[in-house]
TrEMBL record:
UniProt-annotated location(s): Mitochondrion outer membrane
Superkingdom classification of source: Eukaryota
Protein name as annotated: Metaxin
Organism: Channa argus
CDD domains attached to this UniProt entry: GST_C_Metaxin1_3 (cd03212), GST_N_Metaxin1_like (cd03078)
Gene3D superfamilies: 1.20.1050.10
Signal peptide location: none
General function of this protein: Involved in transport of proteins into the mitochondrion. Essential for embryonic development.
């Protein structure tokens, strides 16, 4: 029996199956591309997660990108040999395996789908990067905090900052401006483009369940992946969120996809065990996680002290008992420190 492909994704939160836009797109396309249309939500979820409705995929959710075969998320490992990291490459691979979410689209609908996906990449994605990774309060209070709390020690100390720098580089590339910096003028321009894109998507969707009728396509997956994080996250600066919530059809669109394909991700205080088990290397058990992090912190502290002693950054002097009888000369100590 052939080894199933493995799909590695960021774990979820805020009622979403994943906190990552790229992972949301890949997860949704992986499900709808096999024609999953059952009305039984429990059956839908079991098939989607456990078997991906017949697609030979094994899902691994995690909060440590270094446990991915590519060092990034999402990633698709094919037969334990090749690894695909870009969502577009993963989608192309699924299509080669006869899992095509756009199989029933006409030529015109296919062209419309590509046009709207390109529009989102140009107008909406830059604003998403800014909202979550550049805007100061959102980054500090939501994005950096989430990754720092979910990543294992010591990655949580430096990986969020590295990820932010990469996102800034991506934003500059998308905008074609190497000198682009955060500021009110840039924010206003990015938000204007994003609002325009949302309005166009809302007009195209209209009163339909999905963008091309009663069946989902890759465009639905892309729209969901881009809009759901804005809708569900608790952002201090929620300008885009407020506008999205004013567009009832797009809000209902995201909610319906969550209910249909990921019903358990939005449930709170559920006593049922999740169908997808996180990678054990990510400290799944909360008591063990805290104990391991505490022990790791002690080890790291010991290592830093040892390094300081070995390099002469800190020295320990043996003081004779007689020297303790008189207080040291403060001025002499200051002069010695200055030297």
């Amino acid at each position: 029996m052939a080894t199933p492909d493995e799909l590695f994704c960021w774990e979820g939160d805020w009622g979403l199956p994943s906190v990552s836009t790229d992972c949301l797109v890949v997860l949704e396309i992986s499900i709808i591309s096999v024609g999953l249309k059952s009305q039984d939500q429990t059956t839908v979820e079991e098939k989607a997660y456990a078997q991906f409705a017949g697609a030979p995929l094994k899902l691994r959710k995690m909060s440590n990108p270094w446990r991915s075969p590519s060092g990034s998320l999402p990633a698709l490992r094919i037969h334990q040999k090749e690894t695909l990291s870009r969502p577009s490459d993963i989608i192309i691979h699924l299509r080669k395996q006869k899992y095509n979410a756009d199989y029933d689209l006409s030529a015109k609908e296919g062209a419309d789908s590509l046009a709207f996906i390109s529009l989102m990449e140009e107008k909406l994605m830059p604003a998403l990067i800014y909202v979550f990774w550049i805007e100061p309060k959102n980054y500090v209070d939501v994005t950096r905090r989430w990754y720092a709390e979910h990543m294992p020690f010591p990655l949580n100390f430096f990986l969020p900052g590295r990820m932010q720098r990469r996102q800034m580089e991506k934003l500059r590339l998308l905008r074609g401006d190497e000198s682009l910096e955060a500021g009110e003028e840039v924010e206003k321009e990015l938000y204007h483009d994003a609002v325009e894109c949302m309005n166009l998507l809302s007009q195209r969707l209209g009163s339909q369940k999905f963008f091309f009728g009663d069946s989902p396509s890759s465009l639905d997956a892309y729209v969901f992946g881009h809009l759901a994080p804005i809708l569900k996250s608790k952002l201090p600066n929620g300008k885009l969120q407020q506008h999205l919530k004013s567009l009832d059809n797009l809000t209902n669109f995201c909610t319906n996809i969550l209910l249909l394909y990921f019903p358990r991700d939005g449930r709170e205080n559920s006593n049922q065990k999740p169908l997808v088990q996180h990678d054990s290397g990510d400290f799944d058990h909360v008591p063990n996680k805290r104990r391991k992090q505490f022990l790791s912190a002690l080890v790291a502290l010991g290592a830093m002290v040892s390094y300081a002693l070995l390099t002469g950054m800190v020295s320990i002097q043996h003081i004779q008992q007689e020297a303790l009888e008189e207080p040291p000369d403060l001025q002499a100590i200051e002069e010695e420190g200055d030297g």
